[in-house]
Amino acid sequence: xxxxxTVPQQVTNTQQVTNSLxxxxxxxxxxxxxxxxxxxxxxxxxxxxxxxxxxxxxxALAESESGFAFKRIVDEICDLNWRALDRExxxxxxxxxxxxxxxxxxxxxxxxxxxxxxxxxxxxxxxxRNTANLSPWPGVADEGERMNHDxxxxxxxxxxxxxxxxxxxxxxLGSTYLAKSRGTDSLTRAISLASYEDGGLExxxxxxxxxxxxxxxxxxxxxxxxxxxxxxDSDPEHGHGVICRHLTPDDSIAPLWSAFRDMLVAAAPxxxxxxx
Length: 276
Known about the structure:
51% of the residues lie in helices and 2% in strands. The chain is mainly alpha-helical and 276 residues long. It has one domain: Heme Oxygenase, Chain A. The chain is globular.
């Protein structure tokens, strides 16, 4: 069971929390209706007041999506030199990915509020929030313990200490990323879910797993997180990609992917080393 002295309780919007790397930020775990001080937040949508979803995508639409800029950004992330990462750089990737996981959870909450009757989104929500599908993991989650996936990452980052200067640098990167994502309108954030779950994150995760050295408690837990999410997203019948595919993305989501790419590269400079 995680040590209660080292895993702070979830806090309110006005409190400062320190994650496993000591990264201070304002209530990243708070729902999007209670924005963190100093971070721009898109207005919370009213329940059900959103354009109808396209539940059937024809072949022409699928073909047009192949040329989207956001898909090229996904490829750019995958083409980074993941094999060059040492433990320090890989831990930095895990640290900033925590901020992405907060953004993802907030985005899912927004989508569920926009479309409260959508059974597919409800199924996706059940696999991402208040779930035991990542449990157990030593030092992070007990057998059968339910939590949001960003909470799993928060606890993961407490497994290995880092220097204060690194904490501050990564905290600044994460806060900048959250400010950009929270400044995006609600509908754009909602449709971005399909780009994450229907192949985008799976490709990124498989690329991250090319890193060679995972011999560290934090990194082993992060690797578990990545492998399980590939499993969740790729199931051909009930995978997360299948159940959110009706959220048809367009290039309005490209800045969200650009912000994610930029955060990763800034966190782990070795990613831009020439491959060889």
